[in-house]
Fold Pentapeptide repeat containing protein.
Amino acid sequence: MDGHQLLTQYDKGNRAFLSANLRDADLKQAYLIGINLSRSDLRRADLRGADLSRANLSHANLADANLQDANLYGANLTGSNLSRANIRHANLSKTNLQGAQLTDAELSGANFHEANLAGAHMHGVDLTGIDMVSDNPDYLRVCRARLTTGIPRS
């Protein structure tokens, strides 16, 4: 399935795309509120500026994907792979990132307000300028991170 086919099906009311192969898909600025892409392959997908609020992306492979300026408000990214993804300036407010893999992801300027990061792996990430107000920072694993002006607020 390519990005155009997914958008056509979404416009027809289909929201369930479990285990879809969307590797390298062009979904820039796509409106995909509430979509279910659980266990889908979105490696290297272009999701810049996409609206994925309340989407189910649990256990999806988003390695090397471009999510810059995307809206992921309230999305489920439990156990997803976001290694080396560009998530700059994305809205991840109230997003569930429990157990997500964010190794070497570019997170500068992202909004993690009230996100669940329990068990998330953030090895080698750039947290410059992020908003990270969270009730549950327990079990967050951050290694080799750059924290310039990205200190969590209370």
